[in-house]
Design brief:
The chain has 71 residues and is of the alpha+beta class. It is built from 1 helix and 5 strands. The strands form 2 sheets. A 3-stranded antiparallel sheet has the order 1-2-3, with no helix packed on it. The chain is globular and about 35 Å long.
């Protein structure tokens, strides 16, 4: 998962995580209780899917989250 310069993050021992990415103006908080904490990579997949669903709206110069069509 790419990390922008200036980002901070923390991962807990049972799957919790937060990250703040000021370059992308994104805050992610995952409140999960999974043991072992890697949980099959769900945190990394979550962040990857969030990143993939964000597009830049050139007209408004804002970011828009596109809904996923995955089942």
């Amino acid at each position: 998962v790419p990390i922008s310069a200036g980002s901070i993050w923390w991962s807990g021992s049972a799957g919790t995580r937060y990250s703040i990415d000021p370059a992308q103006n994104i805050v992610i908080v995952i409140m999960a209780q999974v043991s072992p904490s890697h949980g099959g990579g769900f945190r990394e997949n979550f962040v990857r899917l969030v990143d993939a669903s964000i597009i830049e709206d050139d007209k408004a110069n804002d970011y828009i989250i596109q809904p996923s069509h995955q089942g």
